[in-house]
Write a structure and sequence with these properties.
GO terms for molecular function: phosphatase activity. This is HAD family phosphatase. This protein has helices at 20-33, 41-54, 61-72, 80-97, 105-114, 127-135, 138-144, 146-149, 167-176, 190-198, 215-221, 229-240, and strands at 7-10, 118-122, 152-154, 183-187, 202-206, 224-226. The protein is an alpha/beta fold and 241 residues long. The protein folds into 2 domains: 7-18 and 100-240, HAD superfamily/HAD-like (Rossmann fold, 3-Layer(aba) Sandwich); 21-97. A 6-stranded parallel beta sheet has the order 3-2-1-4-5-6, sandwiched between helices. Helix 1 crosses helix 2, helix 1 crosses helix 4 and helix 3 crosses helix 4.
Length: 241
């Protein structure tokens, strides 16, 4: 898995951190804050994933997502920016206090750094969210601080099109002057796996319960599959000693 790989790239939400379920909670609270009844968490997530994929080429896909929610749930807001602001106001405490690394993810990242690998985050989240993880989230900061453990962090603002467009992965290779054969990507979602594969990079599918509906397609498209980071640590030890 790791032979010849010097740049290890991670998606953030659902891959390094347990956060997909948190965003379902955020969107539920957002919908209810406008006096509307939210659907199930599964339907909330499917709606979000579908809209973001359709709007991935927009200047701000998350603003488009909030505009769609405004229309879908009849929030009655003339300016979708108001919906977007409320969403991130709701999200702030969740991001600071509840989100944490997936089990053993921090250990794995530190082992990679010890071995001299370049570790990178390539996420579609906003930089403001990433800044909360970097500067305010005690769980993340105490285990494997982002600024200490990752050479570079890419967020939504760094690309024109979000995954499944391969732009972010192509940008990583350009910035580090490396070919796809030197890179390995860890992703939890089908859109993420497809983005990395479109860039020609080998992929590792990391299990996340919120992607189970796409499990067969994820496993079919990925080069490697792990149930958790304890497996990645063991494989790394066997291959790199």
């Amino acid at each position: 898995m790791f032979e010849g790989k010097s740049i290890i790239i991670f998606d953030m939400d659902g891959t390094l951190i347990d956060s997909v379920g948190i965003w379902n909670k955020v969107d539920r609270r957002l919908i209810e804050s406008f006096g509307k009844k939210a659907l199930s968490d599964r339907e909330i997530q499917h709606t979000r994933d579908d809209i973001l994929e359709r709007k991935r080429g927009a200047q701000n896909p998350y603003l488009e997502y909030c505009a769609c929610l405004n229309e879908l749930y009849d929030f009655g807001q003339n300016d979708p920016d108001c919906v977007l602001k409320k969403r991130y106001d709701i999200a702030h405490d969740f991001l600071r206090k509840e989100i944490d690394y997936k089990p053993m993810a921090d250990v794995f990242v530190k082992e990679l750094v010890k071995l001299g690998c370049i570790t990178v985050i390539a996420s579609t989240t906003k930089r403001s969210n990433m800044d909360i993880y970097r500067q305010e989230n005690a769980n993340i900061m105490s285990k494997a601080a982002i600024d200490e453990c990752f050479s570079k962090v890419y967020t939504r603002e760094d690309v024109g099109s979000i995954k499944p467009d391969p732009e972010v992965y192509l940008k990583v290779m350009e910035d580090f002057e490396a070919g796809p054969e030197k890179c390995l990507v860890f992703e939890d979602s089908l859109v993420g796996i497809k983005a990395a594969k479109s860039a020609g990079i080998d992929t590792v599918a990391v299990h996340d319960m919120y992607s189970d509906d796409e499990r067969k397609e994820i496993n079919r498209n990925a080069d490697h599959i792990i149930g958790g980071y304890e497996e990645a640590v063991e494989i790394l030890k066997k291959e790199r000693g």
